[in-house]
Amino acid sequence: MNKPFAITLDVGSSLANLTGSWRTTKPNYLDRLPPCNNACPAGENIQAWLYYAEEGDYKKAWEEITKNNPLPAVHGRICYHPCEDACNRGHIDETVGIHAVERFLGDTALKQGWSFTIEAEPTGKHVMILGAGPSGLSAAYHLARLGHQVTIYDANKKAGGMMRYGIPRYRLPRGVLDGEIARIREMGVEFKMNTKVEDILGTMKENNYDAVYLAIGAQIGRMIDLPSSGGARILNAVEVLAQMETDDRPQLGDEVIVYGGGNTACDVARTATRLGAKRVSMVVMENQEQMPAHHFEIKEALEEGVELNCLLTIKKIDGKIVTLEKMRVAGERKFEGTGETITMMADSIVQAIGQTIDFSVVEKISDLKNSDGIVQIGPDMMTSHKGVFAGGDMANWDRSATNGVGNGKKAARNIDAYLRGTTYQAPEKPELADHSLLNPWYYGEASRAVQPMLDLVRRQSGFEEVLRDYTEDNAQLEARRCLSCGNCFE
Hints:
This protein is of the alpha/beta class. 31% of the residues lie in helices and 18% in strands. It is built from 17 helices and 18 strands. It has helices at residues 14-19, 35-39, 46-54, 58-65, 72-78, 82-86, 98-112, 134-145, 162-165, 174-185, 200-207, 237-243, 263-274, 295-303, 401-419, 456-461, 472-480, and strands spanning 126-130, 149-153, 190-192, 211-214, 220-221, 228-231, 233-236, 255-259, 279-284, 307-310, 312-319, 321-331, 334-345, 348-351, 355-356, 370-371, 374-375, 388-390. The protein has a 5-stranded parallel sheet with strand order 3-2-1-4-18, covered by helices on one side. Helix 12 packs across helix 13 (263-274). The radius of gyration is 27 Å and the shape is globular.
């Protein structure tokens, strides 16, 4: 039998020798970039504000969001949340409902009357912004927080751009949009609505503006020439959606064809249903899997009774009889006609095949370069004319509201540097916190909270908002599902 033994140690020296260097070496904390943050076009620090939301500090969470995005209640509704597509939680069970928590925080801020503060000293510089859409509003907000005076010009009656004139009320209630715009106005940003600027450089000189940011949205609907003998009305989607903001709503009739397969096409089709059309048909060249519309937009349209007719193209219109040719897939994003046709009846045909920019506003800036339908800008977002910056729809093909907000923030930082005679240097991004670097066994499965929806009958018969808010309990539970990828808060 072995006898027990004991070792006597000099605690001051021997223990250190036995345990090695770990007793005196501090842990090395890595700061990796969470994939949700990396995927966010607005550059939000999503992991950080979810942490505050989880703790129940909703104001701190809202303040963290609005460091980058001044419109969280809006974007919690209309953003297509690429952050969720990138979320590492999806490799365990379901991605975190980031947009729903953001919406809850934005709505809480509106209810509580939280406002923005400006800590920077006034610079005496004055910036002109063309366009009161997401990019223009974002740039104005960030410039104001940096101490600059800002004036926004817009040809529309009300601010909001395509958020107001292109997104239906059942997705974005106007009270929410108005509330978040009002906060930016309260910062001292001046709005000149119903004002189309015909001469940008002349207006700059006349008003002593030090720089201008072009943030005019893509508000002209593209149209193709459809052979028609008259009878069915041929409209474009942008005009139909914009007319919904007037007292004179569009008269589309009982049978409506929406020509196109993107998100705007889905919005028009669902709007036509709510206006009382008895049959609404989407005619799409692609098959359903290749449609550019997001899957949940298609799903909700189908739930509301919209018919989806894929692999078809309109050949001619005789009175109210529409002849369509069947198509077949001929390769990736390629389709060819089969020669086989079918007919459908239509009182109205709404074309939803894309949007473009009104470049007439920049015609007098002779050295401004544009090609392929967008204004050319440098890494600092300045155009070929000194002091004239551009972003959002004017300078990008990613024409989403969230990308516009991100562009507005980036433009504000570069305009601020230009006005101060410096150059803005964006910080380097850390290494991405890929799911392969996590320990998924550490986390138990937790189902995603379901966002409530308006019942189907009320969806089909009015413009009441379809998706509803999380309760406070659901918002906190959903925030707790965040894996805090990339770094440690404790």
